[in-house]
Amino acid sequence: MRQIKLISFDAEGTVVTPDFSQTIWHEAIPALYAQKQGLDFAQAKRHILEEYGQIGDQRLEWYDIEYWFSYLGLGSSKPVIDSCLSKIVYYPEVTEVLSCLASKYKLIVASGTPMELLHLLLRDVKPYFVRIFSSVSHYRQLKSPDFYLSICKEMGVEPDQVTHVGDNWQFDFVNAQQAGINALYLDRSGRNHQEHLSDLTQLKNLFPPSI
Fewer C-beta within 10 Å: the chain N or C terminus? Predict the structure, then answer.
């Protein structure tokens, strides 16, 4: 393995908690739909979850908030997004770990979240990252092996000079490995997976103190 030059992070579930997105998709959108359609919240939420399920997370539309607001006839997404900003929360170790690693490595974000939400999610930690990539917004694809190879080309590094860390087994671990990247699976739940991290603090021990 060549010397690592770049450390890549997923965003939601890795750097920032899912609270912001969960509130938008599972609370705010159903509440607005209930108001528009004259339904109670429980009815609206059931309907919205069924609609999400029909699309599924293997299609780009699933991640596209503008698609859903248009499809459901909800008007502008901005008021809903703004109402949920207080739910953006970083995991406790994130600032310390990013600060430590950024002094020695180039850090990027490689996420499947669209940029209109991603730039909000990362607003307080952006200075630690040299680039932020959204597979959906920048490449119109999910986090496939091709996505990771495109990032490597863009950053001028070989895949085996990159470590990617994320909490989705398929998108962050399997697909990154298939691209030739050194993938680390983050499992905050504590379930027993091979080659997993329980939090980001462990990264400080996995990388040497200097390049």
Answer: N
